[in-house]
From TrEMBL:
PROSITE patterns: AA_TRANSFER_CLASS_3. This is 5-aminovalerate transaminase. Keywords: Aminotransferase, Pyridoxal phosphate, Transferase. GO terms for molecular function: 4-aminobutyrate:2-oxoglutarate transaminase activity; 5-aminovalerate transaminase activity; identical protein binding; pyridoxal phosphate binding. PANTHER family: AMINOTRANSFERASE CLASS III (PTHR11986). CDD domains: OAT_like. Belongs to the class-III pyridoxal-phosphate-dependent aminotransferase family. The keyword Transferase applies. It comes from Silvania hatchlandensis. The keyword Transferase applies. Pfam families: Aminotran_3. It catalyses: 4-aminobutanoate + 2-oxoglutarate = succinate semialdehyde + L-glutamate.
């Protein structure tokens, strides 16, 4: 049996260094909230494959649906021979995505692909070229989504300039001194200095930023953004790739914002670990592109569609939206207790079970503590807990534990985090 060290060496020889890896571990098997590595060591998974496993590793209902579909057909390409699971899933998502208007849904394979298609659709519908994105945004690693992503290193470092006609507004974040007024003013500065509103096809925003640090917009800001888009005929695109599929306590975070986007993207947890993503939007907007302009060979595969239908069924049967809020409350309470002992924790935040803490040197919000963040991640791993960091300054610890986690496992994870902070701050 190979060891983690041996496999890491093989990886170094076979895989480009640009494919990062947070933990020097090779997983062998998993179940719900637990993972075992190739050496047989067990870990509690608070990362969830980066927000992919809201229903846990290998949920029995998901596996059952996939096995049944696999006995029927695995692939035809929907554009050649259609199949009912694709259609059924689109019908359900047309109802679940916020917005009191007729909708249509396109299924693709990855979050980046969904965002690319969303902008493509907005451009076709408006006959405009420009897009506004926000500071701290993460929308993908494909060429155009790298223009939308608000972080050069490591995502586009050394690759030269990305495609143009993308303009950067400020994402509202009171913790770092950016008010709603500041954010709206930054959009008006774009209109004044860079691109007229009649040249902007879409404003793309994460209602809760993912890689950007788990900052959530306020409903008041989203209402102002909605009004601004309506005033100028701009498509509002909500990127719910990470915040969607129940993570925030509603199936989509925009349900908590009081307004609906024209176009919504989703991916990650929608299919419980199987590659699936999509775009749902106003029917007339989604129809702006002629037949043949949308799709993909593996887009909306029968296997992934069957998995997604099972995920939605599990959410309903197991009341996972309520569980998301309960998990979030437990995590928030536990992390606030840890923060009382450690001034380095400057903020505990999140919607539903999309929870994060931000670390600062001596509690000074002007001094991000990336080193301590990395140390906590490493110490937790050594104690059997898998964590992730994020944020523009690498000083945010985020928790994306499956919503199917048991109460004892939440307590175990919080105890490990507390122990890591005690050790790291006393060292």
């Amino acid at each position: 049996m190979s060891t983690n060290k041996e496999l890491m060496q093989r990886r170094s020889n076979a895989v480009p260094r640009g494919v990062g890896q947070i933990h020097p571990i090779f997983a062998a098997r998993a179940e719900n909230c637990r993972v075992w590595d190739v050496e047989g060591r067990e870990y509690l998974d608070f990362a969830g494959g980066i927000a992919v496993l809201n229903t846990g590793h290998l949920h029995p209902e998901v596996i059952r649906a996939v096995e049944e579909q696999l006995k029927k057909l695995s692939h035809t390409c929907f554009q050649v021979l259609a199949y009912e699971p694709y259609l059924e899933l689109c019908e359900i998502l047309n109802q679940k995505v916020p917005g009191d208007f007729p909708k249509k849904t396109l299924l693709v394979t990855t979050g980046s692909e969904a965002v690319e298609n969303a902008v493509k659709i907005a451009r076709a519908a408006t006959k405009r070229n420009g897009t506004i994105a926000f500071t701290g945004a993460y929308h993908g690693r494909t060429h155009y989504t790298l223009s939308l992503t608000g972080k050069v290193a490591p995502y586009s470092a050394g690759m030269g300039l990305m495609p143009g006609h993308v303009y950067r507004a400020l994402y509202p974040c009171a913790l770092h001194g950016v008010s709603d007024d500041d954010a709206i003013a930054s959009i008006h500065r774009i209109f004044k200095n860079d691109a007229a509103p009649e040249d902007i096809a879409a404003i793309v925003i994460e209602p809760v930023q993912g890689e950007g640090g788990f900052y959530a917009t306020s409903p008041a800001f989203m209402q102002r953004l909605r009004d601004l888009c309506d005033e100028h005929g701009i498509m509002l695109i909500a990127d719910e790739v990470q915040s969607g599929a129940g993570r925030t306590g509603t199936f989509f975070a925009m349900e908590q914002m009081g307004v609906a986007a024209d176009i919504t993207t989703f991916a990650k947890s929608i299919a419980g670990g199987f590659p699936l993503a999509g775009v749902t939007g106003r029917a007339e907007v989604m129809d702006a592109i002629a037949p043949g302009g949308l799709g993909g060979t593996y887009a909306g595969s029968p296997i992934a569609c069957a998995a997604a239908l099972a995920v939605i069924k599990v959410f309903e049967q197991d009341d996972l939206l309520q569980k998301a809020n309960a998990v979030g409350d437990a995590l928030r309470e536990g992390l606030l207790a840890i923060a009382e002992k450690h001034r380095e924790i400057g903020d505990v935040r999140g919607l539903g079970a999309m929870i994060a803490i931000e670390l600062f040197e001596d509690g000074d919000a002007h001094k991000p503590h990336a080193a301590l963040t990395a140390e906590i991640v490493a110490r937790a791993r050594d104690k059997g807990l898998i964590l992730l960091s994020c944020g523009p300054y690498y000083n945010v610890l985020r928790i994306l534990v499956p919503l199917t986690v048991e109460k004892a496992q939440i307590e175990q994870g919080l105890a490990i985090i507390a122990e890591c902070f005690d050790e790291a701050t006393q060292a």
